[in-house]
Design brief:
alpha+beta; 2 domains; 1 helix
Length: 99
């Protein structure tokens, strides 16, 4: 299972005097830190827009999102029975009520 927290870059230990190689390493690590801060990834974000979501759990994979007939967003979990939004009616005989 993947971690939701990105690994933080490790900054290099500073040398005793100025060193161009150290400075370049430090700049790369700081740029990586800013990249992680500005691009939180697919699992962590401030806003998320989902398009093309299916209205049924049939023909989707475990973990995928769908919305049901009431418009509620759901996740298909292991063990869930796929649901098709098609409805069917059936009748059997008739009932007569007299009062």
């Amino acid at each position: 299972m993947s971690s939701l927290v990105p690994l933080r870059p490790t900054l290099p230990d500073p040398p005793d005097d100025y060193n161009g190689r150290y400075f370049r390493q430090l700049m790369r690590q700081i740029e990586e830190l800013f990249y992680l801060m500005l691009n939180p990834g697919e699992l962590r974000s401030y806003t998320h827009t989902i398009t093309g979501m299916k209205q049924s759990s049939s023909n989707i994979l475990i973990g995928e999102l769908y919305y049901d007939e009431l418009g509620v967003v759901r996740i298909l979990r292991q063990g869930d029975a796929p649901v098709n939004p098609a409805t069917a009616t059936m009748s059997l005989g008739s009932v007569t009520v007299t009062t």
